[in-house]
Every structure is written in C-alpha cells, then in structure tokens.
Design a protein that fits this description.
The protein is of the alpha+beta class. It is 33% helix and 28% strand. Strands 7-8-9-10-11-1-2-3-4-5-6-12 form a 12-stranded mixed beta sheet. A hairpin with a 4-residue loop joins strand 7 and strand 8. Helix 2 crosses helix 8, helix 3 crosses helix 5 and helix 6 runs parallel beside helix 8. The longest helix has 27 residues.
C-alpha cells in the first residue's frame, strides 16, 4: 500500500506539473493531419502506428517533408543499392543523389531494417536545412541537437522503442519549426510556397499553428522574465480499490512565487504555501483533515514544512529541466489534438489522452523514477488559457486519470484554477531564518512524512 500511494502521489504531482508548466504515445491525430497534407500514408491495414518504422518508410517521409516527392518519382534509379523492394527506389534515389542518406554497405540500403530515433532525428534536421557538412550537428549527437531545436522532446521521441507513432509525431512537430534559412516561419509554409502541399489542405493546420504560437509567445513572455506569483486552487476526487472503498476529496489552495535564475537554475527561488483539506467519506460519515503546508526551493535544496515536521532534500532544478528537455517552457505541439479561441483572449486546448498517458510514464523515467508495474491512463484533458497584452494571465485545467500499481487502482478527477497575481519586481521571496534546522531526508522518506 505504501508503494502504491507513493506512486500515486508522484503521478498526481506529475500531472499537476504538466498543466502548470508547459506534454511513446498515441498520435493518431498527427497521422490524420499529415495524411490530409499528403505527407503520410498508411498501409492496407491502416496507419500501423504501433509497429517500428523501417528505413524505407523513413526515407519516404523525408522526401515528402522536403517537398520533393514528384521530383523523386521522375528520377531514373542509378543508386548502387541492390536490396530495394521497388516502391521505395525513387525516394532512396533522391536522397542518395543529394547526399542525404547512405546505405548500410556499398551495395545495400537495408530498407526493412528498423529506423532508429537517431536516424529519424537526422532526417528531420536535414528536412529543415541543417546538415553535418555545415557543422550544424553530428550524427552521434543529433538527438540532443533536435531536442535543443524543439524537434524531439519527451513526448514524441522514444529512443528505446521508436515506432511509426513517433515518426508521425516528430514529423508533425517539425512542420511547426522554422527552416534554418529563415525563408518562412514554418516548414509547413515552405512546403505550401513550393507547391508541395495544397494551400486549402494546409488551412486548418495553418490556423492551428497561429493559435499555438499565440500560446507559446504568451507563455514565453512570462518565462523570459522568470518572476511571477500566482494563486492556484487545486481540487481532486479520488476513488478505487486502493482507497479501500473510501471516497476521498482534496482541496489545496496554494500561493506560489517563482524567481527563476535563467543562467543557473539551481540558484532559483520558489515558495508555495497553503492549506490542504482532505475529506474522507466512509459509509456516509465524513471526516475532514486540514494541514498547513509551506514549501521552499533555494540553493539546490527543497524544503517542506507540514504538520510540525520540517524536512529538506537536495534537488537539482537544472537536472530536472534537462530531463524534461523542451517541455520546460511549453506543451509539445504533438500532444494537442485541437485548439479553439473561445473569445478574443481565451484559448481552449484539448489533449490526446493516449499521448498524455505514456508521456507521464516517460517523464517519470526521465526524472529517474523506477517504480515498476505502474500504469497511467488519462481520461479527458483540457486546458483554458487566458491572455492579456500578450502575456498569460490565468489557466484552468481539468483532467481524469487512473493509476494502477500492484493490482490496485485509483481513479482521480482533478481541476486546477490558476491566476497570475504579480510579475517582475513585484515578486519578492523572503526565506525563513531556520532552514538550516530542517532535517535532511531522501525521497523514500517523503512517503513516511506524508502518511
């Protein structure tokens, strides 16, 4: 039971962090969009996103993202590879002639060999105009470079099990990126300008990208300064086998202050304070528990004061952000199924539930969590973000999730309502004088403190 609640707590906190910050998986919506644009085709049995991609399929996708499919089909095959099946020959020929791919030997391309995350990251970098010859990246470090540019992230790139699912998610993400030469704002617009993608077919995604960029710019404006305060009201209803049939609800209003040091994240300061109210209903009889909580982060240490217990543990914010990669500032675009401006300044975002489920698992792995047998299943996930003068002002999020561990399950329905209350110089964090007296602990001890 202790293992379950520790795992569940991590899952809930992770999900909360996802909605408060900036999202392999199920990216059917990305495949649909690419199919509409003429950039991705399935097989006779569908998209087959749950299997590995082949080198031949990756080569085909790269040619399409380069907007050169018609040109490739007009080529006469002269490449030295003797092991092609036939349909992929024009795509491989184009890439070979233009120095964009090589074989697995002088005479073999190995078209049915598995495409790796490293290989596809290199393909997408080339589609955007970057090259090894120009010194833009090395093949050995290409995933790091693709992550730096926002092409690869923890949501769309699974280096251990790279599937066609990841191919469509990364390709979809690349369409939103600016080519190296800066000739257009996005790769999609470049393909439209070159006639490789029909303007009408691209209209829905063009509108999507405009709304997404509105969100990114507003969020970035807040993050660039790095100093903000907000009020966050969190509510959760919990039920399931792990609660022994009890109905549990949690209300946690929090005042949050952040002073981010962009040059040295471990030198950042944060403060959170509030009262956690837990209501437990057993056979119609309700018990309420109120618990004051105060949290601080300073000088690479995390401090928690709750119920008369004061503990601290080392925590590198820099390492955590490195693990999160491009997710630290914004939601990965491949996770968002739909965007809608509900009025002049509120953006309604709906997320892919499959992508969210596995992304949480990937996120925990990146942060070093090794809880085995833990499964996350997300239900509906939606966020409303309100802007003013190009800066984020408030956010409302709602989502459902189920966590299963050790043959027990817990269903959680959570809402968050966050409002920015101050920015810039108006944000001041005053640390208490007694932080040195807090008791050192490890992460396993956190469970004992909170039980």
């Amino acid at each position: 039971m202790k293992h379950f609640f520790r795992s569940a707590a991590i899952g809930v906190l992770t999900a909360a962090a996802l909605t408060a910050s900036a999202s392999a998986a199920s990216f059917d919506h990305c495949a649909d969009a690419l199919n509409t644009l003429g950039l991705f085709q399935g097989t006779s049995t569908g998209y087959e996103l749950d299997r590995t991609a082949t080198r031949a399929e990756a080569a085909t996708m790269l040619v399409r993202l380069l907007g050169k499919e018609e040109e490739a089909k007009a080529l006469e095959y002269t490449a030295p590879f003797t092991d092609l099946n036939g349909w992929e020959a024009p795509y491989v020929e184009y890439l070979y002639e233009n120095g964009l791919t090589s074989g697995t030997s002088d005479t073999t391309f190995s078209p049915n060999k598995q495409c790796s995350a490293q290989m596809y990251s290199a393909f997408l970098m080339r589609a955007l105009g970057y090259s090894e010859d120009a010194g833009d990246f090395t093949y050995a470090q290409v995933i790091d470079k693709a992550t730096e540019l926002g092409i690869a992230d923890i949501a769309n790139c699974d280096t251990d099990n790279f599937l066609r699912d990841n191919v469509v998610a990364m390709s979809y993400t690349a369409l939103a990126k600016q080519p190296k030469d800066g000739s257009t704002d996005t790769l999609l617009q470049k393909l439209v300008d070159e006639g490789a993608v029909d303007t009408t077919a691209a209209s829905d995604m063009t509108d999507f990208l405009q709304m997404y960029n509105t969100y990114v710019q507003a969020n970035q404006a807040l993050m660039d300064d790095g100093r903000f305060a907000m009020y966050a009201a969190i509510h959760a209803d919990v039920s399931g086998e792990a609660t022994d049939g009890y109905a549990i609800s949690l209300d946690m209003p929090l005042s949050v202050k952040v002073m981010m040091n962009q040059e040295d994240l471990d030198a950042s300061k944060m403060e959170m304070s509030g009262v956690m109210n837990i209501s437990v209903n057993v056979d119609g009889e309700e018990t309420n528990i109120d618990q004051d909580m105060t949290y601080y982060y300073a000088d690479g240490m995390y401090y928690m004061s709750s119920g008369g217990t004061q503990v601290k543990m080392a925590m590198s914010l820099s390492d955590a952000m490195s693990a999160l990669g491009t997710m630290s500032n914004t939601q990965p675009i491949s996770m968002i199924e739909s965007l809608e401006m509900t009025d002049d300044n509120t953006l309604h975002m709906v997320y892919s539930t499959g992508a969210m489920s596995s992304m949480i698992t990937n996120l925990l792995g990146a942060l070093g969590t090794e809880d085995a047998g833990m499964q996350f299943d997300m239900g509906d996930v939606a966020i409303d973000v309100t802007f003013a003068d190009g800066v984020m002002q408030s956010m409302k999020a709602a989502f459902d999730m189920s966590i299963s561990v050790d043959d027990q399950s817990m269903d959680i329905s959570m809402t968050e309502d966050c409002t920015i209350t101050a920015t810039g110089d108006d944000v001041v964090i005053t640390l208490p004088d007694d932080l040195d007296s807090y008791t050192s602990m490890d992460t396993d001890a956190l469970t004992e403190v909170t039980e």
